[in-house]
Task: inverse folding
């Protein structure tokens, strides 16, 4: 009879460390409720108010609809966050986008793109993590490829008021301060 294989201590520790990070959630962070966001965003210019009315809605229409929306927002800076419900780093940065989209939503347009994500999963994610802006479904990754999502999720793309890409941030925002600094620099140009 063979003795059972017992993994070495280093392998066990590595497995435990990997499992600890999977699905880990960030400590509870206070985010605006839909009612608070509505109060903060009232009086937004018409193109931005239209986005807020579609807050937390998963939109179809693919790349064509997305590009039409970007064209309609010309004259306003735009921040596009590409995410997926199965993406743990996306989940970790959601509170930052929830707060900054309300804080800057009267001057900056925010859009989401749910990349390679089944619509039911995207909708469930959005129900659990309310956002003040709409998200475009991108199961075929056409939008993602068009906006420069090349190395994975999350990715955030900044457009200046002329509709030109000013910066692509690949990867998770580790803190809200970094995101607000990028909004100030790449969206608002301050």
Result:
């Amino acid at each position: 009879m063979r003795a059972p294989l017992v993994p070495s201590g280093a392998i066990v520790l590595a497995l435990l460390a990997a499992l600890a990070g999977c699905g880990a959630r960030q400590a509870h962070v206070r985010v605006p409720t839909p009612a608070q966001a509505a109060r903060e965003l009232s009086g937004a210019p018409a193109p931005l108010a239209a986005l807020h009315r579609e807050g937390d809605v998963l939109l179809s229409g693919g790349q064509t609809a997305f590009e039409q929306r970007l064209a309609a927002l010309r004259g306003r800076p735009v921040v596009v966050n590409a995410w997926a419900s199965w993406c743990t780093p996306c989940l970790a940065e959601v509170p930052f986008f929830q707060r900054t989209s309300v804080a800057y939503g009267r001057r900056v347009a925010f859009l989401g793109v749910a990349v390679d994500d089944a619509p039911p999963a995207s909708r469930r994610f959005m129900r659990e993590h309310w956002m003040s802006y709409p998200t475009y479904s991108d199961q075929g990754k056409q939008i993602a490829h068009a906006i420069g999502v090349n190395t994975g999720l999350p990715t955030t793309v900044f457009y200046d008021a002329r509709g030109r890409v000013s910066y692509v941030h690949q990867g998770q925002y580790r803190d809200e301060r970094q995101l607000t600094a990028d909004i100030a620099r790449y969206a608002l140009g301050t």
